[in-house]
Design brief:
Length: 340
Amino acid sequence: MASVPGQLLRVLLRLLGAFWSSLAPFCAWRRWGAPIPRRVPEAGVVARPVPVSVNYHFTRRCNYKCGFCFHTAKTSFVLPLAAAQRGLGLLKQAGMEKINFSGGEPFLHERGEFVGKLVEFCKQELKLPSVSIVSNGSMVTERWFKRYGEYLDILAVSCDSFNEEVNGLIGRGQGKKNHVKNLQKLRGWCRDYGVAFKINSVVNRFNVEEDMNVQIQALSPVRWKVFQCLLIEGENTGEDALREAEKFVISDEDFELFLQRHKDVSCLVPESNKKMRDSYLILDEYMRFLNCRNGRKEPSRSILDVGVENAVQFSGFDEKMFFKRGGKYVWSKADMALAW
Ligand code: SF4
């Protein structure tokens, strides 16, 4: 007959054995390094997108008059610097890693000082990995590069044609200023001041036949973004629009032919209408997200009033399409292997 202490010991050992068996799957799972599963939102709850990459169109004013412009000068409002900085801080807290300043023309307001201060703030204070600007390039000065160049990762300059007559037809230009010569000057400053140089082109009725291979290879941008001309109700089409862009629109087939002609340019990143429409997080001059899902820009409330998490739900942002179009790329100049 077994003693009482012996029985107790056996019971204890059995309990311990059961405890270890229950841990076994967990131990094996950790040992093989399986990823910890992501928290899935409860049924019926829509996951909010994280605003990893944001385009802040802080001004709508521009010195050019491109016929297909899809962010037109419907207001002349610009937030005070402190309010814009507060909004950028909120976005950083919500997960922003990349900010792109756009317009209108970002260098028009306070002759580039405003965008310069925002760029410096985002790099110095917020320590964002990537800070970029999209500009038509006509108002950028070397003085600006000297003062703010070190805080800027990427300067994207719009160029739709290397033929000045075509630029004139599109509305890209100002009197006698030569858009193409200016582009070459900007390329040089980007090299001199350590800023990655990017080119954005919109393929439309007037440049669709053009062969840009030689000029693009010579300018050697880190990225050449090629967009298909897009209609947005209320901006460049429809009754309350400031432009009538219908005559600029091209078919998907024409866009494909343009891409084929430039297939040897390795930095080319194409963006069809389908890819473009919902895959950008756009903030307007009041820091409202603009939802383009219905073919027009419908604003959320301002992040300054309701916070980022509330506003971003109304952004219409398609996170999957953002990743599919390669929205996340090497976007910090510190990570780019470039021969300046
Ligand atoms: S440069 Fe850009 S913002 Fe200005 S009119 Fe042309 S497309 Fe619009």
